[in-house]
From TrEMBL:
Uppermost EC category: oxidoreductase
InterPro entries, A to Z: Gfo/Idh/MocA-like_OxRdtase_N, Gfo/Idh/MocA_oxidrdct_glycsds, Gfo/Idh/MocA_OxRdtase_bact_C, NAD(P)-bd_dom_sf, TAT_signal, TAT_signal_bac_arc
EC number, UniProt record: 1.1.1.18
UniProt protein name: Inositol 2-dehydrogenase
UniProt GO molecular function: inositol 2-dehydrogenase (NAD+) activity; nucleotide binding
Domain Gfo/Idh/MocA-like oxidoreductase N-terminal: start-end pairs: 88-163
Positions of the Gfo/Idh/MocA-like oxidoreductase bacterial type C-terminal domain: 201-453
First and last residue of the signal peptide: none
């Protein structure tokens, strides 16, 4: 772990090699139980605090102590410093520049909830600084960034949890779904449909004055330098002070410069479960075809020519050819969730339900005892952070690891590239590049803005 004068806390974050070698499973809750003394709890910091940043912080204050918070928006930073103080009775230090967090030897791990275009740079620098990392999904802005993170995890040996909480915090429906498939309850899987909802375009968004509390240049960071844009009407329910339309807070998801729209937002949840169900030997795409889609602005050579409106796809129907003749569809139509279809049946699962004949049949023919736990790899925690802390102790990668996340996220990134270029893409999984399409391969990476390069 990170250098620290606190021997007790270091010992808490270690586990005996004998227990790991014996394959002893201890629940994540049990691994953190008893860490009641502040000296025995891991020390965390959150970088990026609006919305999901606070969500993961608030779920973790019972398991870790937060020594520092960082955000480029002074209002967001101040609000969340007070929130954490109210919970742990001690105010964390506040920084605008995340690098001040990484400079501290007393911080064991960072939780990253910045906009997507910042994830990779912060994560890599955190690992180089000796921190374990919990990073919100989608992990990367490009496929090349995923490779960089994998390289750094391997080089540094840091524990890295991706915040796809659907693997553990949305009840056991998704785990049950995978258990049903592994038990052969729908026969051979033939088709998987991931419904991830569409989005809406925007009106013309004018250049506006940057809010006094926001460091706009630092918010942009690795992304190209552009004007701040916003319409004054506020978006309800997102912490206040958020314009209904902008190229910043919350709405960053609607711009390819900073994110990947619904394909990498909700796709990072449902495509992840679909690939988990298929297994690691069959979860890389062979071909990605944009059957139908709507882009809200004109594109030329894969790039938007209009810069004052949202530019990610608003509607889409993507066909993905997977190994073993499995067809995956990613669509903005229909119910949000995943439909699994096989030779012997079908069922649907989302965060609110799991339904279908194979599910009904469980009443008379239940899954074998422990089948759901076998999917997870041990007892299932109610909190994604508990799994992260357990992994910090064992020094084994958590349930939502970098490699499995990147494999499924490649499908989402390729879907966006296919729509931007308007053509099918053939994927070479062994080389992790697009076969026979030099232009498309230029979209696998992006150059960071000068001064915000990733140094490894």
């Amino acid at each position: 772990m990170v250098k620290s004068g606190n021997t007790t806390r270091r010992q808490f974050l270690q586990v005996t090699a004998a227990a790991g070698a014996a394959g002893v499973f201890t629940s994540s809750a049990a691994l953190v139980k008893g860490a009641e003394s502040p000296n025995e709890r891991p020390v965390f910091s959150t970088i990026g605090l609006r919305n999901q940043g606070w969500a993961i912080t608030s779920k973790s204050t019972g398991l870790a102590d937060f020594a520092a918070l960082a955000d480029v928006d002074a209002n967001v930073l101040g609000t969340n410093v007070q929130r954490v103080k109210d919970r742990q009775k001690k105010a964390p230090d506040a920084y605008k520049d995340y690098r001040k967090v990484l400079d501290r030897d007393d911080i064991d791990a960072v939780m990253i909830a910045t906009p997507d275009h910042w994830h990779t740079k912060v994560a890599i620098e955190a690992m180089l600084a000796g921190k374990d990392v919990y990073c919100e999904k989608p992990l990367t802005l490009t496929i090349a960034e995923g490779k960089l993170i994998e390289k750094m995890v391997k080089k540094t040996g840091r524990v890295f949890q991706v915040g796809t909480m659907q693997r553990s915090e949305s009840g056991q429906r998704f785990l049950q779904a995978i258990a049903l498939i592994r038990a052969g309850r729908i026969g051979k899987v033939q088709k998987i449909t991931c419904g991830i909802n569409g989005t809406n375009g925007s009106p013309e968004i004018p250049v506006a004055s940057v809010p006094a509390e926001l460091d706009w240049d630092l918010w942009l960071g690795p992304a190209p330098k552009v004007d701040y844009r916003a319409l004054p009407e506020e978006r309800k329910g997102y912490g206040g002070g958020v314009p209904l339309y902008s190229n910043c807070h919350y709405s960053f998801r609607e711009w390819h410069e900073y994110a990947g729209g619904k394909l990498t937002d909700w796709g990072a949840h449902h495509v992840d479960i679909a690939c988990w169900a298929l297994g690691e030997d069959a979860n890389s795409p062979k071909k990605v075809s944009p059957v139908s889609y709507t882009l809200p602005v004109e594109y030329k050579d894969g790039y938007p020519v209009v810069h004052d409106r949202y530019n990610v796809a608003t509607k889409f129907n993507i066909k993905v050819d997977m190994p073993n003749d499995v067809e995956m569809t990613i669509t903005s139509e229909g119910d949000n969730g995943i439909l699994f279809e096989g030779t012997d049946g079908r069922f649907f699962v989302n965060r609110g339900k799991i339904v279908g004949a194979p599910v009904e049949a469980l009443e008379k023919n239940p899954l074998p005892e422990g089948a759901v736990e076998d999917v997870y790899g041990g007892p299932i925690p109610s909190n994604h952070t508990a799994n992260f802390i357990a992994s910090m102790k064992s020094r084994k990668q958590p349930i939502s690891d970098v490699w499995s996340h990147n494999r499924m996220l490649e499908i989402c990134h390729l879907s966006n590239i296919a729509m931007r270029l308007g053509r099918d893409l053939n994927w070479d999984a062994s080389k992790r590049e697009i076969a026979g399409d030099d232009q498309a391969n230029t979209f696998l990476a992006r150059e960071n803005r000068k001064g915000y390069e990733i140094n490894m």
